């Protein structure tokens, strides 16, 4: 009887999937997206999660401190080689419209007394990135909003320009509210409800096959609905995925778009940063039609 019982237990245990089967790509993507419902991951999250202590700040999951004593290695890289930092959690606001109208309204939230402004010639041409402090409209030197960096898209012969403003996620809501106020952007440009993208038909069939082969337990969320594998969660840690991310002004024609987590941002520190960039990035050949 004991021998029969042992054989029966072994058969029951064999039904459970091995670690390789549980860590298949489709299952991992669904699990990762399920874990990003409250805190969004950066593109380099998996690399950092294996080497850093992760913290949850500003709606993101960020690497705070390394698990090993790598301070000397980081210092050596900054002084002699190159060190890369992932700053993709910084928010990006995109402004489109006529150059004169953009500069006229942006001059209300900054001052020449603090240094550079959006009208700086070197920055206005799009060759260099500028940095300044923003204030509430016509309230300088009071009611400071915070520091930002900006870069203009180079001119293409048209009077319409494109401006990207990078800011810390803790300052995003206040600065976005001020920009919409000075440009009178209160109406959404279009219905921008970015729901999570569901998996393709082929992936859904693969999931059904996996379900049928092994009696896999289906995960359920807080509402009790069955979780559906998705490719990627749209949105960022500072914006609800069901909120609009683009606004336009009917009077000035200025359009404001929230490009957070759509444009990745990295910082290279060290004497070999320029040589690494030139060796990594290849210039495309210009083709004229």
TrEMBL record:
It comes from the Eukaryota. GO terms for biological process: tRNA 5'-leader removal. Residues 4-97 form the Pop1 N-terminal domain. InterPro entries: Pop1, Pop1_N. Pfam families: POP1_N. PANTHER family: RIBONUCLEASES P/MRP PROTEIN SUBUNIT POP1, RIBONUCLEASES P_MRP PROTEIN SUBUNIT POP1. This is POP1 protein. It comes from Rhodinocichla rosea. The lineage of its organism: Eukaryota, Metazoa, Chordata, Craniata, Vertebrata.
